Task: inverse folding
């Protein structure tokens, strides 16, 4: 190309120069000896200038071609992102609950429009599809490596979170020890990643229950839940020598992390701050090859008592569990347990070996406790007796040898759990306090027989507790085998038409506040509740000098009546009156002797 330009220039110069020489012959210039003659000097200069112009043109052409290639690559990246997003939306629209029955049209997701910018349009705004999950990444395998790593490669913003009602699992009790709302186990999984070459799996996220993050094949799942309880306790007469006080309290502030690492391996880790210090609440692994048989190892609620094991504190009709469970229940311990559901989930069972000390993290002796639990719904599939389908009946037992400091040292009305934390005395009324040196020592047997009935808006739960436990005073050198008995009956009924088949999350028919526009707003759900509860210990506790009979009582009973107000699935308000009667007068001071206590109880509970 450069040679053609030079030749054209020389031809033009020759054409213009020839007529001038023919018309006006010019005498040759004088030649001086010291001036060398350079024939054709003007032609060579023009050729140099033309070559410089040619080089500049070549550089401009190269720059233009490079710009065109970069623009084409940017357009391909943008088109590929849009294609992948549309494919993801179409796939999710067929798999997720509450999604449209057919894939959304171009640029829409359930009628919502997003805005994104296209570089080739000079940054102008155009409509584009919105991804269903805010945290869903586009995997690096979607584009070639050199393009995925190019500067400026960004995924579009997500539009919104999908919400749906809690998944219905049938009348099976929501046991405290099972992971919170695990997703159903479905499709098979691809090969697992290895440490040497870990694969990068895309992550989906949504809300309900809790914040959930999982892979598309549902092999890996993380749920994050929060429980917050804020309450006011107003005692009838907190003056005199009584340790309890009117005030505002935070009985439970909890955060839960649970899910699975491949389908058979489930996990739970949670933290709690209540009437005590911040500490681990539960931490365990659950091996889940089949619903009929699972194995759990770690720290969790032991399978003793229906109101402890089968009903989470979130769904209790009353603010707290019975007198027996809050004072003598085995609570959370470290152990190994097999459990599951048999006969089409008409029989629930659990059996395991545990450390023994109540609400403990470590064992202080070599002995271990055995605990077992059975709960049956014999008419669950009955066509002849449909009203009995949600009737539960069963029992539980715990047996082992103890040798550790007594927990609790104080037995209380209005307690949340067995504890020796000094803060517990501020919120609950003690009716029996053991001497500080008392140990649990010797065999301990605890058991219960329970029945629970649910029909439409009605819940009726009753349980009888029995047993005996060895206590000893190293200072006095005395000991006693103390008999224990207790029972409770709870009744609850929804005044606003909601139905229950077990104690679980309640979705009001007309919530006060609702997340979607498809649900009628109203007064929420209202539940009327009443309970009678009793706990008695044998007089042997006084005969052995383990407590002062002139100050304390060996038994107490409570009467509770109140209303539960459910604003929506996540917010619940308890409004209760509690009356506690002591078997013998309790002396909180020289001039403060009481036969009982009264308390107004109001609690706000948030859970998601």
Result:
């Amino acid at each position: 190309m450069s040679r053609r330009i030079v030749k054209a220039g020389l031809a033009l110069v020759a054409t213009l120069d020839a007529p001038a020489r023919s018309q006006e012959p010019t005498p040759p210039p004088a030649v001086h000896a010291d001036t060398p003659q350079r024939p054709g000097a003007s032609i060579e200069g023009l050729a140099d200038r033309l070559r410089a112009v040619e080089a500049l043109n070549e550089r401009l052409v190269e720059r233009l071609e490079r710009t065109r290639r970069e623009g084409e690559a940017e357009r391909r990246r943008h088109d590929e992102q849009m294609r992948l997003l549309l494919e993801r939306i179409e796939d999710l629209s067929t798999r997720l609950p509450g999604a449209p029955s057919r894939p959304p049209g171009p640029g829409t997701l359930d009628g919502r429009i997003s805005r994104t910018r296209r570089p080739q349009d000079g940054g102008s705004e155009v409509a584009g599809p919105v991804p269903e999950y805010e945290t869903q990444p586009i995997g690096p395998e979607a584009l070639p490596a050199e393009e995925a790593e190019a500067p400026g490669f960004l995924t579009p913003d997500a539009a919104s979170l999908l919400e749906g009602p809690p998944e219905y699992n049938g009348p099976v009790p929501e046991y405290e020890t099972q992971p919170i709302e695990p997703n159903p186990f479905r499709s098979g999984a691809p090969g697992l990643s290895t440490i040497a070459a870990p694969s990068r799996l895309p992550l989906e996220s949504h809300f309900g229950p809790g914040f959930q993050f999982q892979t598309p094949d549902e092999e890996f799942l993380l749920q994050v839940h929060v429980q917050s309880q804020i309450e006011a306790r107003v005692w009838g007469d907190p003056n005199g020598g009584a340790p309890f006080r009117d005030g505002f309290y935070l009985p439970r502030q909890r955060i839960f992390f649970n899910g699975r690492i491949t389908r058979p391996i489930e996990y739970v880790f949670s933290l709690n701050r209540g009437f005590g210090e911040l500490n681990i609440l539960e931490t365990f692994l659950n091996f889940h090859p089949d619903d009929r048989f699972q194995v759990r190892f770690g720290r969790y609620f032991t399978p003793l008592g229906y109101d402890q094991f089968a009903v989470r504190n979130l769904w209790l009709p009353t603010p707290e569990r019975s007198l027996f469970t809050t004072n003598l229940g085995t609570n959370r311990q470290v152990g190994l347990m097999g459990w599951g559901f048999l006969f089409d989930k008409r029989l629930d069972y659990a059996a395991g070996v545990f450390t023994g000390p109540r609400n403990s993290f470590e064992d202080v002796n070599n002995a271990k406790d055995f605990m077992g639990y059975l709960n049956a719904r014999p008419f669950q599939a009955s066509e002849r007796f449909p009203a009995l389908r949600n009737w539960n009946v069963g029992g539980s037992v715990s047996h082992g040898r103890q040798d550790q400091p007594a927990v609790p040292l104080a037995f209380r009305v209005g307690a949340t759990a067995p504890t020796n934390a000094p803060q517990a005395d501020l919120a609950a009324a003690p009716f029996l306090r053991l001497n500080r040196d008392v140990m649990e020592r010797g065999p301990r047997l605890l058991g219960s027989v329970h029945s629970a009935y649910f029909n439409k808006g009605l819940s009726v739960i009753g349980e009888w507790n029995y047993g005996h436990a060895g206590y000893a005073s190293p200072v006095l050198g005395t000991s006693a085998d103390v008999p224990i008995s207790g029972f409770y009956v709870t009744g609850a009924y929804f005044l606003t038409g909601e139905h229950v088949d077990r104690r679980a999350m309640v979705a009001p028919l007309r919530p006060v506040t609702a997340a979607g526009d498809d649900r009628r707003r109203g007064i929420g759900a209202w539940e009327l509740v009443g309970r009678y509860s009793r706990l008695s210990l044998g007089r042997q506790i006084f005969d052995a000098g383990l407590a002062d009979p002139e100050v304390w009582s060996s038994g107490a009973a409570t009467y509770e009546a109140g209303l539960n107000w459910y604003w929506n699935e996540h917010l619940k308000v308890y409004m209760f009156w509690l009356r506690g009667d002591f078997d013998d007068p309790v002396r909180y001071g020289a001039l403060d002797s009481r036969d009982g206590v009264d308390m107004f109880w109001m609690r706000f509970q948030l859970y998601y």
Notes: The CA atoms of residues 163 and 207 lie 6 Å apart.
